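Please check this record.
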Amino acid sequence: MKTTHSPFLLVVGLLALSAPVPDRALAQEKPKVQVQIPDPGVPQGMTMEGKFVRAAYNNEGYVIIGYQLVNRSVGEDWMLLEVGLTVLDNTPAYELKRDALSLETPDGKTIPLPTISEHREGNTSALQNREKVQRDSINYFPPSATRACALTFFPDLTSRVLPVDEIELSNQRACLGRLYFKVPGGIAYGQHWLNVKFEKSLVRVPFRILTKDEEKLLSKNYKSISKQVKDAFKPKKQ
């Protein structure tokens, strides 16, 4: 299991990208792409661990997502997110329930997790198979989270494991699994949020469904964008 050196070495997701027009006097220099970091509306830090990997955390909980498949599924009714969850040091273990998770779409709608029967009726097996090749590792957790934990709100459709309505989180458990959402009107481009209500706080993970031009811009400028995000959440000197 990969871990960060500190639970607070984490960054944000993408965002709105824009390439500024260079000053004529600096025309010979390559203009830097500027990142607009979305405002979650709650106190938290955020990180970008890959082109389609986003993490957010506060003093209580940590959430990381992988969404490469989602970015390849524009217009489809079902969204599959790979998700990792844990709580941070000094946070007591507790049960995270299904209704603590929701999706916010670019048009401002908040979508709850589907029921087990809704998910099974959705016939998401093809989506699950695509996810095996259209994915990125999200195995990045704070150092204390060393015990593997299956996030089984929606277990593999071919597995004998039964779905559950709650998952025990502790600072030693790195819980990984899939979340599904049925999106009215289909998955759209733009800014999305995965909302996770921990016992005492809310963590909102931003992820942007990129157009082809936005994805090209990110790919060409990933290091610069990643540095801007890290600088934005760099711990302040005392």
